[in-house]
Amino acid sequence: MTNSERIFISPLETLEILLELGVWVEVSTPLIPGVNTAGGELEKIAKALAGLQVDIPWHLVRFVPEHRMSGLSPTAPETLRRAIQIGRDAGLRFIYTERLLDEAGRQTLCPHCRSPLVERRLYGLVEDRTRNGQCPNCGASLPCVWR
User: Fold this and answer.
1) Same domain, yes or no, for 97 and 75?
2) What are the strands of the beta sheet with 116-121, ordered from one edge?
3) pLDDT of 43-65, one tens digit each?
4) 41-52 helix and 11-20 helix, angle to the nearest 10 degrees
5) Distances in Å between the alpha carbon of 106 and those of 6, 74, 124, 146?
6) Given the DSSP bridges, would you call strands 27-31 and 58-62 parallel, antiparallel or unpaired?
7) Number of domains, the chain
């Protein structure tokens, strides 16, 4: 097969296919100042994800410059907070922040009663309160792949 014969599938189309096949999907987006944090880029991503499925977990990753990108600034906490709101406004129900010293951004809350279900440290699990894929507080069924 030559390069001109290859079929291009966009990342969004790939997500659609995975979801149709029943694959659990989570999306991580590094928030890089000056690259994807302005001009409506985050709104486009959030709307596209919510258009596929509002239960797709969206991980917002704080950019920390290293090596070849050391001339850029790290993602400001305010930018992460704004991105969380953008995701909520789009209808996403599970939004997480990474590499930010903010415990609330690393919690999974029940989308029905807002009680904490899963608490994480910066790099690990603290507690998982879910029971058989349900909220122990209100009994709501929770989307995920449960062990």
Assistant:
1) yes
2) 108-109, 116-121, 124-128
3) 999 999 999 999 999 999 988 88
4) 20
5) 40, 19, 10, 18
6) parallel
7) 2
